[in-house]
Amino acid sequence: MAEFPRDVAYTPEHEWYRVQDGTIGVTDHAQRSLGDVVYVELPAVGAVLEAGRPFGTIESVKSVSDLFAPVGGRVAAVNTALADEPERVNREPYGGGWLIRVDPSGEPAGLLDADAYRRLVEGT
Amino acid sequence: MPVPDAPEPLIFERSRPGRRALRLPEIDVPEPSRPEDDLPSGWLRARPPALPEVGEPEVVRHFTRLSRRNFAVDTGMYPLGSCTMKYNPKINDTLAGLDGFAGLHPSAPDALAQGALALLWELEQDLCRLTGMDAFSLQPAAGAHGELVGMLIASAYHRARGDSARRRVVVPDAAHGTNPASAAMAGFEVVEVGTDARGGIDLEQVRAHADGRLAALMLTNPNTLGLFEGEVREVAQVVHQAGGLLYYDGANLNAIVGRARPADMGFDVCHLNLHKTFSTPHGMGGPGAGPVGVTRRLSPYLPGPLVRRRDVPAVAGPRYAWDDPGPESIGRVRALHGNFGVLVRAYAYIRANGGSGLREVSGHAVLAANYLAALLRPWLPASHDRICMHEVVTDGRALAPHGLRALDLCKALLDRGFHAPTMYFPLIVPEALMFEPTETEPREAIEALAAAVGEIVALAERDPEAVRQAPTQTPVGRVDEASAARRPVLRWYPSEGDRAPEG
């Protein structure tokens, strides 16, 4: 079963956001649905994100999907290890497979907690 | 004859120094100039390219062996949904190969190309009759090319009216991926709308975008779920009232050809995939053809040149000539006159079937898909419980309790002599498996495909590992798709140490 850690908030588009350090990634459910991730396209450090807008793409053997920003802000760090090892997203979606870190420009809005996100993906 | 098990080496690996197929005589006339005299030195190679050195029998055997490992509509059923892999009648090739067509120079004067021009003109008329459009351009070389042309026409139309605020194109989330890509390439902002519970475009969401920014809405009918968009007239009304245009992605025309016409549904501009509905070859990259049709108000913007027919009283019969595009045209979109050989094949197909025959094509295509859907239901229920059109999208999650993923089922079908269905598309259906049998498959083939699916499900319950290992009967077994995409090896080197780029 997919994991839904409680220390992050979730978007309905299957990204997670850790408020403490501004880290963004895709959820365990997302990586399972995508299958083997083969490429992740991320913004450069310093790029400005708008909440709810696409900030990159994630490509798996099945499809290419947009990544949506859970919060607005400036990109502070990018997980450059994904360029050579995109499979980290599959292996550790909440750890070594993180995507970017942001300096948020405000409070995130419209995010789900672990229980609400689990209900969303499990359709209950 | 069984396919040999040994992997076929690359032609480069067969190379032996000094071997060759042909010996050309020494040049006995003065050479006009040598390339190395004319090219900047930085562009010249330091050494000759390492082309394979092989004898003629080696070349012939290599490529003949490879060709025997190919899977094609001519060797087996190809239910690749969305692609309309129908049988391509051989008479199409015979006619396209006639000297008068195949040997005609594309720049021949009109007077020497009357037969070819007449064929193009008649094909345009046929496509107009089948779609209800008023004019067609045969130039676009593929479906996506047609989409781009259609979007450029929409752009030119709005611009000519001074309506420059219309920069938005609406596409449903079920759309072919090429739709938003074409709209974006033509400079539009793409807005996505959802699919309702019945599998149709969400009309309320369309209404929400029906404003002065709307340039066009792109719709496939039937849509990529294989379902007829029953509210298409309402969609057209909403789009038109807002001042937008309705674009028909003709990829799924095989479901309605001869029965319903896009223009009657309210579409203003469309492309057709001749390599789908009109039985011209595709797979392995075509070439295809994606003619674009428009209603009268958009005809000034069509790309040119277009064939014009003139009745000349002094001579027997009409005369045909190329007309250059007018000042409002978006211009040329391809060199010369499109993929002419493909156009001849499509014309042959239309003439061979006639109006009533094409009506039967769509009828049989829809019947075949519904029969297959009914046979598959025990293992693979349709994504939406409705009568489908020419293809059925099934929900592969039903395989999970049997320990199967959509991918595993596809791989195991290869061992049973079938091409796999389309998988993981449309994106809005989890584990989607999309089957399109087409009208040319006999009943026995459809039943055999369904039986093979049932057999694989039973095998998965008995011996899941056997299915995870599939395919084992093909020249190449289960490939590691993830590694191939992550770390592709696109170039062969004679040895590890020989990786320096050629100077």
Description of the structure:
The complex is a heterodimer of chains A (about 120) and B (about 500). Chain A has three helices and nine strands, in the order E-E-E-H-E-E-E-E-E-H-E-H. Chain A is α+β, with helices and mostly antiparallel strands. Chain A has one domain: OB fold (Dihydrolipoamide Acetyltransferase, E2P). The longest helix of chain A is centred in the last third of the chain and has 9 residues, at about 115-120. Chain B has about 500 residues and is an alpha/beta fold. Chain B has a domain at about 90-350: 3-Layer(aba) Sandwich (Aspartate Aminotransferase, domain 2). In chain B, helix 9 (about 230-240) links the parallel strand 4 and strand 5. In chain B, helix 5 runs parallel beside helix 12.
Overview in brief:
By secondary structure, chain A is an alpha+beta fold. Chain A is 16% helix and 32% strand. Chain A starts with 8 loop residues before the first strand and ends with a helix.
